[in-house]
Batch of 3 targets.
Target 1
Amino acid sequence: MPPTPFSPLRRSLTAAALASAAPIAPAAGTLVLHTFGDSILDCARYNERGVHPGALLVRNDDALFPEFAGRDLSARGPARLEHRAQDGATVASLPAQARGLRRVDRAAAIVTVGGNDLLRGLASDAGPGLKAFEAALEAFVRALPIRPVLLGTVYDPTFGDDARNFLGVDARIARANHRRVGDAIGAIAARHGRLVDLHAHFLTGDPSWFTRTIEPSLVGASEVRRAFLAPVLAAT
């Protein structure tokens, strides 16, 4: 989930439930979009329509978002979602999300992680934690049997306004570490896939894109989709 100043209240990852979910073999020629990470992608519980960004990428809800009618993966052929992202996840949770994953001929992966790591200590970290975060994410992405992989940066629900700081960490320190997390994600994306700058996109938004301070609202879920859409279409 998010960057700089935010609330420490998060749900814990249920690794056992993730591990027990058996992957479904795709029909021949079907493109499988995989999601990994946190509530930026696993945000259906935070909106009244139960919408995930990954689901919108696979098949748009034309009644809700007519702007995106015909602009989804299904418009180009058979496609389905393999949703493994989990609200509350940190970088340490990612290997469990990929457990039992099988390589498929036509696939793509989108990943959002780092917000909960910032919430749980990286926002005030002096350096070692940030290095460990980068190493863990690098190892996960390198071992992931899905390509292409697109990594999203961590957005900022404060819109760069220090007056909205609710983390309890000096905003100057938190913002510097937020930038370092973004730099780490960018470096890994450059080596193994493609970067999607959610942080930059969400700075163009407004508070209606969020609910419960840091979670994507219904509009926010669509805006996450908007940020990923062109890169996913180009990569697949």
Target 2
Amino acid sequence: MLGWQAVLMENQAVPAENALAQSLAVGLLAAGRAVVDGVSAGVRARGFSDLRPAHGFAFTRLSRGGATITQLAEHLDVTRQAAAQLADELVAKGYIERREHPADARAKLLMLTEKGWACTRAAEAAIADTVAAWAEVIGDDRLRELAGDLARIAPGGPLRPLW
């Protein structure tokens, strides 16, 4: 029995009509956690040991042409101060840089450096490794079906860390 299934078994207060919903919700959360853990471990194994999963969520936004502190804060659903602190940390580590904003002289544009792009590529490889393990369990066809199902039911919008 999987760990998350044992948690469901312990919670006998769940009415039968809610069991499927709870099983799906907990299973999806556990799968999401497995992705975060797999990417984190894969990025560290590829030489980027000074990062946390929250940094990856920032990289996701910055990889789409950069962002201002305000845009990064909105993406991460944190205060501007928290986003600025995260940016300062990533600048100090060499993953991002501040550039002049082409349309707003008051703002700075946060952009990935070559080191940031290398880390992004490492994360993409770690995602592929994580998902490949799932294919070994359920097969390639079912994995493609699952991806299609999730694309139809998952809401759009930014991927944010679960603080």
Target 3
Amino acid sequence: MNRPKKAKPANDEIPEISKSQRKREAHALLDLARQLVSMPQSRLKRLPLDQDLRDEVDFARSIRPHGARKRQLMTVAKKLRNGDTEALLDAVNNIDEKNRQMIVRHHHVEAWRDRLIEGDDKALSELLEHGQGANVQILRQLIRNAKKEAKINKPPAASRKLFKVLREMNALETLPPLS
């Protein structure tokens, strides 16, 4: 038995989106709705949301029971589907990228702190020769105190102070890469 062949769309017709693609897009919008509901209020205020969508997100945040919250998330996703989400996606991705960059800088400062505490004066001289304007005496004292604290299992107060000093140095001029 021969099946009739489907007609190919003409060049001026828009091809139909597959059911699988529509499902992927719906799941992506549902994930975005979950992100919006779980986002801190201060970050949510900076996003370009229309008032109707903002009200739905706030209502979803106030709901505690599982089933009702799930239904409200679906409502938020539906509002997202009906509106323009390009600007909203860009804003959420921009916030996420800034957070990733801040985490990378934080880890870099932590790595320098650990290297200074575990290493010798060579690490400190490498840091200082890179042009970091810091008080050498304070850095040496904090490193020495952090080593003592680690040796006798005291809380790492000097290590925290050293981290703060390094973070301030990094804010003025980026710390050199670890070699």
